[in-house]
């Protein structure tokens, strides 16, 4: 619009004042000016736009009021009144102002704007006039006149700054509304918003300003909401220049763009409609810090409570998710932290986040893996429904993380969830069921080697799973039902935990006992040994040793501290007493107070492990009451999710375990009365557990509880005579443990049982044999002689040497316990009786042991069919082979019998680990490992594990390797911890297993053609299976020691058959293969070895000095084949296609590898790359499920000490032909047999190409003969190799 020309006032330029108002000039005082202006203000206030005459009349006055005298008047009252007049003038003369000069208009509006600062003080007497001024300006939209001014932006900026600066919390809604109207009209009716004006609005959103003036922030927020359609373009332009074009100079707010975006998004997402695509561009910036800033911003936008950005802008959301895989660590970390808020505020996005969190849970950065756990756990603690099973699975995985901080966070997080939802049931049974696996998983971690993990599991158990702060009844109820719901491995872990704590208590008790003895060198040495053992059970063993020495010093100086510690570990210490003792001991060690006291922390670790915070007499009593309620049917078993039978059985098992660790707590008539009731129950397991509890805790029954004694004795007699085998064993041991007249009691059982033995009724023979065996072992002086006639006349002659019944000829190599014939079960128990009888005597004066060993060897040679009448079934023969092998191994644990076991008998025993039946191999290996790891068996039996390299089942090889690792580490640790062990290095040092291994392999029945590659390859694999573990480290020049030991063996003769040239040659060939393997593994093996190895004379005959064996038994071609798997290429061909080489570079020969059937689960493969030693194999579980039967169900870890068995559901297999040699076929032969089976159609489709255990025949026709009928098989040659029933 064009401004009109200056209007002329009426009366030839003379100013007309309202009636009663005198002329206002600079000649009068300020007070008079104010007085006259007030009347002018009143006049203009009463005028309206229709008063044309008055408008013309007072036009001169209007022009006069805009003069410099008024606009620059120093009196603020004058300025306020003039401003009010001017505002009214703009209202009256609207839409055309009486002022035409652009400069004059600018001055007027800047003047009015300055007066608006008076709005700040609401308590001012003039505030109403300031409010009137604001109201007038807003209502008339007077500032819109400025749009035509070239520099109107200056006026608007000043106005906005003024309004934002004056607003405060004392202003009412009307003031804010008028300010809003005034500013919004300028934005919405103008041609656009300049950057400077936009800055005056946006600056109020910056956190620093926002905190200074909350009302200004609210005003800006409301203004932006109202003007979103108009201002959005200006905002987009600003962010486009800063974000995309990088022009940070366009605004002083450029450095706050991300804060502004966050605030604008919170105000109205529509303000950023055009900005969001620009953020996607910034997310892909090359600058890591810039990406980090954008990620932080978007994390807040996506994670905000009511944000719909993810659904509205899917491309940006997907681009943001991509930053979870950013190369910049802080970016990934920020993304993971965001996920927590996102899961809580937007459960619908959990699916999108899951995959990315999965990847980040395996992030190489520890901090990121840690925060993934924190993210998931925090969301789960808020509401379990926010985290799906997959997310919880990530936390579960991290409990096995390589970093302690991550493992700890995962374990503690799961423990918190368990306590919240399973213990306190804060979200109902459904949520509790969802995470019911946590209790098992946490306890499984106790199997880890790290002491930190074990300590944390103990802490979690005491604080989260069974909180020790609960009262006794509630605590025991919690433990009772927890134990009932745990899986098998978790139960074992919990039992192990109590066992470890009890062992540590024993160590502390022994230490305190040493303090009571006079000071001596021997006493100090013993103390040091105890302190070292205690320190091994605490974190950071190095520091723990120092702190334990310091603690021991404090104990020696402070008698009161010793008394408190003795009370703490006393069997009669109650849980409440334990808390007091721990508090007192801690208080004594707290002085002087320090900010950080690592010594005190270490002692606290010790006290937490040994303090009985759960179990005391009161707790056992509460457990027994719960058990009684379950028996009576009045307990809450069903409500707790277990059946009454399960509760009773688990409750008894729990009490049985506690009877080992806290026997004193059981000593009460009430407890024993309840256990007597359990003895009368029909459940065999319950009765067995009850007897064992009596055995462990009943030492004072005879003297203090006569009534219990009189009731218990007849029950024990009855169980020993007619109970189950396990009950009979426990009953005999119970009588022996708790009664003074045990000889009389045992005789009352022995006499009638020995007279009633009848081989014709094997069903009634098993329990008597168990009882007689254990009686003769526990009381050999009294019963060894009577047993000799029973053994000779009945056990051997009548039972073992006779087959009265014909076995089930179904061809299976193993069958379930209930399918085993009573006669075979009786024979197995007869073998065990022989062993127990000999173990009781512990001498071989009567040569009974020699006879027994010959009998057991004969059973192994005959493959379990001692009579060779072919009446016994294949599965029963497997049972008897296992029993015979286990028996020899058991006798070898007694030194007097180990001496008389011949090398041939040792080899027969060892070959059981290569038995054709999977279960025999499995159970025998487990028994072998348990005896070795307890240092009960001589070192030579460790060599048996080398034969496992030939096992076609990957799982068995992996198990054998773990057994080797464990046994070797146990022996090395034992040598370190026991100085006296140095004198017995020959029987303890793991390296000394090598001579036994070489001798065993030289006599392997499979090793018949010592110059054939396939057989040598098997020997090499067996050697490497053991040597790989032994040579992991070159401690004390052990590699050179091994080489020297093998070289020394080559200078001896085989003691088993010293004059047999072929046997000696096989021994030397195995030595050469061993030297070949050692040399290829280690360069250090050629160093000098000062120590002279000692060779066992039982296996090797040392020759005189003139004997020198320097012959190389392996040809160059054979070495090449063992190294590469194929013969060295002919020289002519090598010349034709000679490989181009670079000087100094090694040529790596490529070999074609066949599928793996021999590799271990270890990532450390043999250094000798062979062609056939890496054959593919199916999963261990699959292979195990396919061995021996078509659909067997094999349960792990269900091997029992007295009667090992595997519950299998088996289908019919293939009848095998008998064979006269022990051991099992080579893997190559097994594979060939399986291929023949498949070709012949004997195996179902898809089931014939895996790990076969059929015994291969010597010829191809022998393999194909598998498809013959049972009748034709029985008529086949005796020389046909046994075939194993295995579906692959």
Structure description:
- With 1288 residues, the protein is mostly helical.
- Helices cover 60% and strands 0% of the residues.
- It has a two-stranded antiparallel ribbon.
| Average pLDDT over all residues | 80
As a whole number of angstroms, the C-alpha radius of gyration is 47 Å
Shape: elongated
What proportion of the residues form beta strands (DSSP E)? Answer: under 5%
Total strands: 2
Strands in their spatial order, largest beta sheet: 1-2
Tally the helices.
Answer: 61
Low-pLDDT segments, ≥5 res: 1-12, 1130-1288
Q: Mind summarizing the main beta sheet?
A: 2 strands, antiparallel
Measured as a percent range, the helix fraction is 55-70%
Q: By helix and strand content, what is the structural category? A: mainly alpha
Termini distance? 97 Å
Attribute tags:
single chain, 1288 residues, 60% helix, elongated, disordered C terminus, cell cycle
Short description:
Its main location: nucleus. With 1288 residues, the protein is mostly helical.
Which SSEs are present, and which pair or pack?
Elements: H1 30-46, H2 52-57, H3 59-65, H4 68-71, H5 76-93, H6 102-115, H7 127-140, H8 152-166, H9 173-189, H10 195-202, H11 207-212, H12 214-226, H13 228-244, H14 257-267, H15 276-283, H16 288-303, H17 309-312, H18 314-322, H19 329-345, H20 350-360, H21 366-382, H22 389-398, H23 404-423, H24 428-434, H25 437-444, H26 451-465, H27 472-485, H28 488-515, H29 521-535, H30 541-557, H31 559-569, H32 575-590, H33 598-610, H34 617-632, H35 644-661, H36 669-679, H37 684-697, H38 701-704, H39 706-722, H40 725-738, H41 742-755, H42 766-778, H43 780-800, H44 822-841, H45 848-861, H46 874-891, H47 895-898, H48 903-910, H49 918-933, H50 954-977, H51 985-988, H52 993-1002, H53 1013-1030, H54 1038-1049, E1 1052-1054, H55 1061-1081, E2 1100-1102, H56 1116-1124, H57 1131-1136, H58 1180-1185, H59 1227-1240, H60 1260-1264, H61 1270-1274
Antiparallel strand pairs: 1-2
Helix pairs in contact: 1-5, 5-6, 5-7, 6-8, 7-9, 8-10, 8-12, 9-12, 13-15, 14-16, 15-18, 16-19, 19-20, 19-21, 21-22, 21-23, 23-24, 23-26, 25-28, 27-34, 27-35, 28-29, 28-31, 28-35, 29-30, 31-32, 32-33, 34-35, 34-36, 35-37, 36-37, 36-39, 37-40, 39-40, 39-41, 40-41, 40-42, 41-42, 42-43, 42-44, ...
Subcellular location: Nucleus
Protein name: PDS5 cohesin associated factor A
GO cellular component, one term: nucleus
